[in-house]
Specification:
The complex is a heterodimer of chains A (303) and B (307).
Chain A lengths: L1 H31 L6 H23 L4 H27 L7 H20 L19 E4 L2 E4 H23 L1 H11 L1 H6 L4 H26 L9 H14 L4 H20 L7 H15 L14
Antiparallel strand pairs in A: 1-2
Chain B lengths: L1 H20 L6 H26 L7 H19 L8 H27 L4 H21 L18 H20 L4 H8 L1 H6 L4 H27 L9 H14 L4 H17 L4 H18 L14
Helix pairs in contact in B: 1-6, 2-6, 2-9, 2-10, 2-11, 3-4, 3-5, 3-9, 4-9, 6-9, 10-11
The chains are: A mainly alpha (303), B mainly alpha (307).
């Protein structure tokens, strides 16, 4: 029972991070209908932004303070929002009318470009760097259960961000425009929606969430390096598909489900080596039985 | 048309084996690259059958290459040493074929469920299967786990690589140009219309996938016996991307273009060795630039769909 609860806590914390990253995938897919492979590298850039900003805030606020951490997270999110918009403007916008496969391959190209540039010794270097402590860390021990305060913060903050996302998309004017573009781009533009601005905004929002996800991920990971985004990025993408791509609550649900499954299977003796394969196996099963995902709606193809 | 293709095949095989006899006279480094080129031609042409001619987007080609490579290398390591030298070529042909067949089986197992999906979803599922195959080899002690297999006899010669490349090109070209093969192009152009014409799209897609996987397995076998060392890391997502880029650069569905692209993209990294630290950055910029300026591929000569 203790083992079960312990894995539940770990799984929720991991799943919350996947959910944050998955939201970015799902939002971009919602408006542009393609997989933004570079998303996983934006999350890496977010982690590196925090890595370089943290020492500065430590001077101003003292090391590992809540206000310092907030400044780090906000600044990194802002930087990544700008990076996300830049990527969209330079690489994806010229291809808006081209086949989706072309855009997909471009996205892979952008992803490789960020990774290899990051690995160059004059940029970040390929070596693993240890991530600075952002928050005061406490172990909360209840009976045999151990829970790091960081995990609670991650789960709590993710919850807040999810509600904020829901509010933006469902209750604001710009959110309504996002939904309109996702529903029918041409009709939306005829109704006076500035489609380019909305797509830029979507990228900014998704990339900012990726930055937050990247920082949280790095807080739990042993260190950061230019390829660190690949694994969580793939998982988050799977989470987005799992929940039904293009569907915001679905992405959150998919993230949590994937985090839990991975932690439970990874924790079982004999299965831990297959941890990397489990997420993919799950994805394949879901796509075979519910191609539209857990919360997605099936669309029939019209001739 | 058919006679000409047979002639090309014959010339290709004879030239490959002929040059192979003269191989000791060449620089070993250049010979190694030439063999790499042959292997990459097999990979690119076989992926072109799936991604180009049939219009399915597979990102898991390296997985099938891994299956062929591991199976044939393991067989050589276990049984190869006991055979007399005269039997070696037959044995090598046998293990390559077996590696290809097992890879084809893997292709069938992957293709039947996943080819019901389209576009991005298919891409991500094939990527997933490729990763799963890699993880299986990585965790299996029989196949050397994370370190992989070492000390594989270097049986791959210039003749083997290029003769098999010629056979691959011949088989794919004849297949696509046959009456049966028009079905692949029909599925590529419009699946629903093809279905309405009485073509079973799923069957064609699976057929393309299995044949593609078979040749990828053979390429994997050649690769393993060329490098003498294989490890799971060599068959990752990046390897699949490399092959996909060859197909795209050559122009999807254009065999001649794809062969040229395979040659260029194998030699290019060697030429860029001087600026090794910028090599991969240049490579990724090349992909982006190509997609922005020439999404139809660099080499667009040759009728689309024909060889």
């Amino acid at each position: 029972m203790d083992w079960f609860l312990q894995q539940l806590i770990n799984g929720l914390a991991l799943g919350a991070i996947y959910a944050l990253i998955a939201l970015g995938y799902t939002m971009v897919y919602g408006v542009l209908r393609f997989i933004n492979f570079a998303h996983s590298d934006v999350l890496m850039l977010g982690a590196f932004a925090a890595f370089y900003i943290a020492p500065m805030t430590a001077k101003m606020f003292g090391p590992a303070t809540v206000s310092g951490a907030l400044v780090v997270i906000l600044l990194s999110a802002a930087i990544c929002a700008v990076i996300g918009m830049t990527i969209e403007y330079l690489a994806y916008r010229p291809l808006r009318k081209r086949p989706r496969l072309t855009v997909l391959i471009t996205a892979i190209g952008v992803s490789l470009f960020i990774e290899f540039t990051g690995q160059h010794e004059k940029v970040f270097g390929a070596a693993t760097k240890s991530f600075p402590t952002l928050l005061p860390k406490k172990e909360i021990i209840v009976g045999a259960l151990r829970c790091s305060s960081n995990d609670l913060v991650v789960v709590g903050l993710t919850g807040v961000l999810l509600v904020a996302m829901w509010f933006i998309v469902q209750r604001t004017k710009i959110g309504m425009a996002m939904r309109a573009v996702s529903f029918n781009e041409q009709a939306a533009s005829l109704m006076g929606v500035n489609v380019n601005a909305i797509i830029s905004f979507t990228f900014a929002l998704g990339s900012a969430l990726a930055a937050v996800g990247g920082i949280f991920y790095s807080m739990r990971a042993p260190g950061i390096e230019p390829l660190m985004g690949v694994q969580p990025g793939l998982r988050a993408f799977i989470a987005a598909v799992l929940g039904g791509i293009g569907n915001l609550p679905g992405a959150a649900l998919g993230g949590v489900v994937l985090g839990l499954i991975e932690t439970f299977f990874g924790g079982m003796p004999g299965l831990s080596n297959y941890r990397d394969a489990i997420a993919f196996a799950l994805l394949i099963l879901i796509l075979l039985f519910r191609p539209a995902g857990l919360l997605g709606k099936m669309q029939t193809e019209k001739v | 048309m058919r006679g000409r293709e047979k002639l090309f095949l014959l010339i290709g095989i004879i030239a490959a084996i002929g040059i192979s006899y003269a191989a000791p006279a060449f620089n070993r480094y250049y010979l190694g690259i030439a063999i790499d080129v042959g292997i990459n031609i097999i990979l690119a042409v076989s992926l072109n059958l799936i991604n180009g001619h049939t219009g399915q987007f597979s990102l898991g080609h390296a997985g099938f290459m891994a299956v062929g490579g591991y199976i044939s290398a393991k067989l050589t390591l276990v049984y190869g040493a006991t055979l007399p030298a005269a039997a070696q070529p037959f044995f090598f042909a046998g293990v390559l074929l077996l590696g290809g067949l097992v890879a084809a089986l893997a292709g069938l197992a992957v293709g039947v469920p996943s080819l019901r999906l389209k576009g991005d979803y298919l891409a991500i599922v094939t990527l997933g299967f490729g990763e799963i195959i890699r993880v299986i080899f990585q965790t299996s002690d029989t196949f050397g786990a994370a370190t992989g297999l070492t000390g594989i006899p270097k049986l791959t010669t210039f003749g083997w690589a290029w003769a098999l490349a010629a056979i691959t090109v011949y088989v794919v070209a004849c297949l696509v140009n046959s009456t049966y093969g028009r079905g692949f192009i029909a599925v590529h152009d419009d699946e629903i219309a093809a279905g309405a014409m009485g073509i079973n799209p799923v069957r064609y897609k699976v057929t393309a996938f299995v044949i593609g996987a078979f040749f990828a397995g053979i390429a994997g076998g050649l690769y393993a016996h060329h490098k003498a060392v294989i490890s799971p890391g060599g068959f990752d997502f990046l390897k699949s991307i490399e092959i996909v880029v060859m197909v795209i650069l050559g122009g999807m569905g254009r065999t001649v273009g794809v062969i040229l692209a395979a040659i260029i993209l194998t030699i290019l990294p060697e030429l860029l060795r001087g600026v090794a630290e910028y090599r991969m950055i240049i490579y990724s910029l090349l992909i982006i630039g190509l997609m922005l300026t020439r999404p139809q591929g660099l080499f667009t000569f040759g009728k689309k769909g024909a060889a």
